[in-house]
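Quick one: structure tokens for this chain, please?
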Amino acid sequence: MEKEKNVIFEAFARKAAERIEERKKLRTMRLMVKSVGMEVEIRGLTEEEIRDCMDFSDESIEVDKYTIYMASPTLQNAAKILVEEGTLKQHYKITEMFTGSERTFIANKVLELSGMTGDAKIEVIREDEEIKNS
């Protein structure tokens, strides 16, 4: 019985290690923003990057703008040019080119790519009653 438990835990540990390595790979996505006729690339963010985004501001709209900027090499490259030209003062403000609904959509896609939203694929198989100490 003990050997069987060890085999189960070893298999679980191997699966956990594989999953951790898989989650380190950041996924990317290309979006066509029809209102501006441009394609924008976004990528998933690490948990540390997401924490930085959440700490960026107390205002959720500013957090969304910064999150989108952090996740998009396309926007980062364009913002660099605009800041150098003096057209833009803060890099992340390039996201103001999008409407509020577009920013919400893109921010949600970033969170999805980051593994923070979407289907959790978890099923409750048993709920145990609380054990009382006598």
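The mean pLDDT is 89.
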